[in-house]
């Protein structure tokens, strides 16, 4: 058991990156607004995204290259498209996950007094955002991949246990029968939420690239990290995101559905509402469990996202310019931190809008990543024995149709 746990790595990093805004914010909102009515969307989107996420570690372990090298082999234009998409979204995504983490920290630990600079004041959430980014930055610069790998095992285990306990307590205290009737959103607001929910459930598809980069790093530390082990590792991480996603929908449905509460778009207020509603329903003694589940969820996402975006941008830059950069990762991670701080100092009150934009953009660009990943894993650039099975081919075709279909449907409702 210990040996198998040590062998895990990139799959848990994937889970850490995935289980964040999609679960704590979007899944909880889905449960609060629709009860269990959107479980169908969670199941379908995780099923149809599965092959495209799996192709990341499959390609990396089979070839010793990340998906980025593969994209370049498919054509420089593919790599440039990825570069532009990532550069355009990474600051907003990092801001979104960091500010939710900061909101929870402010509610859970210390609510700082605002600090004034002339006419501008920095709130407690903004102070926490800077603290959390600095902690993550130091962890990644000093500890690098190995520390991230080991730390994520602790975080995911803590998160899983605290979430299971929270769901069990909510079920035990529940007196209202749960309806399993599934719902198809009808008005534009509900459809927008559905697309946002599916956009980051269990994660944006570009995380398959991050996963392939982590798999390469894992192979450097463990030569025995074979393709079979990489796929086992991925499956463990992927199915844990589905399990926890359903858990957070259940929590939202059990604790918030029908309560009449409306959620704030302010990070601090939202986090306070979230934790307060859970503790009101389950009892004050549950505060630390709910708080721990919420904070570890978001901290894991903040940490892994802060590592992955600079790692992928550094490698993409090297491939496009055909030269290595000694301090490329450091440059991108510092740039991401500075850009993120600038955004949340001036746009913190628009958390809901920014998250919605980022999640919708993730869903609309999903067909691009799905098609490119499928082309690459089925091409001559992947060893024949690691090409997808017939079932995976069929699931890939269905997945591409599903992602394109829902994107077109959403665009027609605008």
From TrEMBL:
GO molecular function: cadmium ion transmembrane transporter activity; manganese ion transmembrane transporter activity
Localization per record: Membrane
UniProt-listed InterPro entries: NRAMP_fam (IPR001046)
An individual GO BP term: iron ion transmembrane transport
Location, primary (coarse class): membrane
Pfam families (alphabetical): Nramp
Entry's transmembrane regions: 37-56, 77-105, 125-142, 154-172, 192-216, 237-257, 285-306, 327-347, 353-372, 392-411
Alphabetized UniProt keyword annotations: Membrane, Transmembrane, Transmembrane helix
One term under GO cellular component: plasma membrane
Recorded topology in the membrane: Multi-pass membrane protein
Domain of life the protein comes from: Bacteria
Transmembrane helix listed as a keyword: yes
Matches recorded under PANTHER family: METAL ION TRANSPORT PROTEIN (PTHR11706:SF3), SOLUTE CARRIER PROTEIN FAMILY 11 MEMBER (PTHR11706)
Protein name: Divalent metal cation transporter
Species assigned in the record: Hyunsoonleella aquatilis
């Amino acid at each position: 058991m210990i040996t198998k746990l040590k062998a895990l790595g990139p799959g848990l990093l994937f889970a850490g990156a995935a289980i964040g805004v999609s679960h704590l914010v979007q899944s909880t909102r889905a449960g609060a607004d629709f009860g269990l009515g959107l479980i169908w969307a969670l199941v379908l989107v995780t099923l149809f995204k599965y092959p495209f996420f799996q192709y990341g570690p499959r390609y990396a372990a089979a070839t010793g290259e990340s998906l980025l090298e593969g994209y370049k082999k498919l054509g420089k234009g593919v790599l440039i498209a990825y570069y532009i998409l990532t550069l355009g979204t990474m600051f907003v995504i990092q801001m979104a996950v960091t500010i939710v983490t900061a909101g929870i920290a402010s509610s859970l630990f210390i609510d700082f007094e605002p600090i004034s600079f002339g006419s501008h004041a920095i709130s407690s959430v903004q102070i926490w955002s800077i603290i959390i980014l600095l902690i993550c930055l130091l962890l990644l610069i000093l500890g690098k991949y190995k520390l991230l790998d080991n730390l994520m095992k602790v975080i995911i285990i803590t998160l899983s246990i605290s979430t299971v306990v929270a769901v069990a307590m909510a079920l035990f205290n529940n007196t209202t029968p749960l309806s399993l009737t599934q719902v198809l959103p009808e008005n534009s607001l509900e459809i927008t939420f559905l697309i946002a929910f599916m956009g980051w459930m269990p994660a944006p598809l570009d995380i398959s690239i991050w996963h392939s980069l982590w798999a390469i790093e894992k192979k450097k530390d463990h030569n025995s990290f074979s393709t079979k082990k990489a796929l086992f590792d991925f499956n463990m991480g992927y199915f844990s995101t589905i399990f926890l996603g359903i858990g957070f929908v259940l929590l939202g449905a059990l604790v918030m559905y029908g309560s009449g509460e409306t959620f704030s778009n302010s990070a601090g207020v939202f986090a306070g509402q979230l934790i307060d509603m859970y503790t009101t329903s389950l009892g004050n003694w549950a505060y630390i469990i709910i708080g721990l589940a919420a904070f570890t969820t978001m901290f894991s996402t903040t940490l892994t996202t802060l590592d992955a975006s600079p790692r992928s941008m550094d490698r993409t830059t090297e491939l496009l310019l055909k030269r290595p950069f000694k301090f490329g990762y450091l440059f991108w991670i510092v740039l991401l931190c500075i850009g993120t701080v600038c955004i949340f100092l001036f746009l913190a009150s628009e958390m809901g809008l920014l998250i919605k934009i980022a999640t919708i953009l993730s869903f609309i660009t999903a067909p691009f990543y799905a098609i490119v990943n499928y082309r690459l894993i089925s091409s001559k650039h992947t060893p024949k024995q690691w090409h997808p099975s017939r079932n995976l081919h069929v699931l890939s075709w269905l997945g591409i149709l599903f992602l394109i279909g829902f994107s077109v449907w959403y665009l027609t409702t605008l």
